[in-house]
Amino acid sequence: MPPAPLLERKRQHPMTASDHAFAEVPQSWTHRHLLDLERLSADDITLLLDTAAAFKQATNGCRTKLSALAGSTVVNLFFESSTRTKTSFALAARRLGADVVDFSAAGSSLSKGESFIDTAKNLEAMGVDAVVVRHQTPGTPHLLTEHLGVGVINAGDGPHEHPTQGLLDIFSIREQLGSLEGLTVGLVGDIAHSRTARSNLWGLTKLGAKVILCGPPTLVSQRWQELGVEVSHDLDTILPRCHVLNLLRIQFERQNTPPFPSVREYAHLYAMDKRRLRRARSDLVILAPGPINRGVEVTADVADCPQSLILNQVTNGLAVRMAALWLTCGPRAGEPTPSSQPAGASA
Amino acid sequence: MPSLLIRGGRIVDPSQSLDATGDVLIRDGRVVAIGAAAVSESDAAGADEVIDAEGMIITPGLVDMHVHLREPGREEDETIETGAAAAIAGGFTSVACIPNTEPPIDTQGAVEFIHQKAARADACNVFVVACVSRDRAGKELAEIGQLVEAGAVAFTDDGSPVYDAELMRRAFEYCRMFDKPILAHEEVLELSHGGVMHEGLVSLALGLPGMPAAAEEVMIGRDIALAEVTGGRLHVMHLSTAGGVALVRRAKAQGIAVTAEATPHHFTLTDECLRQFDSNYKMSPPLRTAADVEAILDGLVDGTIDCIATDHAPHAIEKKMLELDRAPFGILGLETAVGLSITRLIVPGRLDWPRLVDAMSTLPSRILGIDRGTLAVGAVGDVTIIDPNLTWEVDASTFRSKSVNSPFHGWQLTGRAVATIVGGRVKFRLHEAAAAS
Ligand SMILES: [Zn+2]
Ligand SMILES: [Zn+2]
Questions:
Q1: Which of A175, B296, B394, B425 lies at a C-alpha separation of 20 to 30 Å from A155?
Q2: Are A156 and A82 in contact (CB under 8 A)?
Q3: Hey, what domains does chain B have and what are their CATH numbers?
């Protein structure tokens, strides 16, 4: 049963000057959902990044609240646990004035065999405006869009994509280095199982960066070359060419057979350590978006080296997710805003 | 017993190299006259029932040698009755049912159960393929001799490969005694497990676990070697890769007793379809690449692939409409096979009618060793009448099958069976069916 406040749709907020800047979603944004970066255009991605930058500025570094989504309800539908991403989406929604409902698969009717589609439909019936979904299976957010009439944001679907993580990485690089055009970005590690890698790959290449995928052949398929991406199995040779390195976590839990003989051997070949850092450009930017395995993807001395490593991107994560939420479920020209709809109505 | 006259159609019967306009007269369930001017005026006048087949193709009844009827055990997906109804609506007069039921068909009693249910359904002929291994567990041989006595026409552990190479070798050797083929689902499970689609560029981009072509080809290679060493008969089921086609072509050239089938979905769809994340595109073996589809088509043209079989695999909607990794493998086939084959093979001129009828009737009958696939005088009066020009839209809601897991819903197809005659009795007529619905 829905908690009572959920059905009570409206709370009027006084509009501020910054709210007026976000009164209406630009008409150049034509998507209902944010499912992946593969099918977005460079303009779409730039609009997302610019919107994130505007939110970051208007909210004093994502600290103050707006009312751009006041009266809207966002559901966090997480079939896989993730404290960081879920919290980030929840905060982003609240910064925009939306109500947030958390729905975790554990302890819900899902464990009794209800299908994810039924679950989502029940949520829709409660009158929500957007669904943020995390699921272990690629394509599940896409399937939801066929069954729901509300905006869907993919918060990670198995090894497929994690568009807001990709955007956040790109946003951070852009903030640090100005433009993506002409940069060389090395994505290192478990490409096979990394949704972050895929979202980075599409987003970066669309914005004019060159991407090199690097790791052992068991985790980095040669076939990526057929999509025009450089593949390397030797970190030391590509390192001097990279402006940015994105270190992706080895997902030991997703492997059928170990993809390399030992962690020791992997670290020897691919861990970012002080010795390797000396071979790199002095202004190398290192991103480590996942909860990293210290001593595997990166050694402790590099992990704690503050000038190069961007470990925690809380603020940028918020800005990007505010942009994603607002673009997918914010008011559009010619469409009734949530606040002008009668209570209980759904799209 | 009544007689049936089919008049003035184009008779295509590759079993007797016949392709001519003419009539077919069936009396007491058997063909008594066939060909141009073969039926005398008095016989024609005395026929109890006449079907005007002008503009139609008349073929020996179509045979689908790879059908999962699900009964016993999974009646929520399909029953022998609904599966047989789907078969005649799709133009098939005979199906061979695959024994991966619950329990599996590995005893005489189980074979008799199928025969009894099929007789009660009284639609198409149902030939029974029985298990290679007891309980389909892959450990020891089922009682193959007893099963042959009960009427099993072939053996398979389909759903799974026969994993133990020595057991497969024994099965080939033992089946030689009865001249029965082993129908093989070719898959090295370690290479494909956890996979939901073909391993390739699309699976790479979608992050979906893949089933490499090598998983199929390695097993085909093993089984060809075992068929050669034993002299047994290997029939490769649902061949789906270019490499597999090449292996079968080479084995045939070497004189090894190997035959093969391909499904309409494998010669029609590619792994690009998975971009829709629709579990109706999930089957095993998976949809492969465009190059594989071309190789399958070439194999059908040059005869490397003997026949078309559907691998009709119904799943109730609540079980199929799940996330891709949780949904079961399988796709319906019986009610779309004729339309897809004509649309994909005849219309573009890839196959001519005699070759298509060979692939859908004569050769599967020969592989199974059943007395079907021919309209020679004296043969059982199983006939399919096809309108080669009828264009129609696939509507899953009209399927006779109990399930609807077809990605072809909404497709426009050319060519459809308009009448299905089993043992001289008209079991299905499209226009009556349409009028009734
Ligand atoms: Zn199979
Ligand atoms: Zn099968």
A1: A175
A2: yes
A3: 4-58+379-436 (2.30.40.10), 66-368 (3.20.20.140)
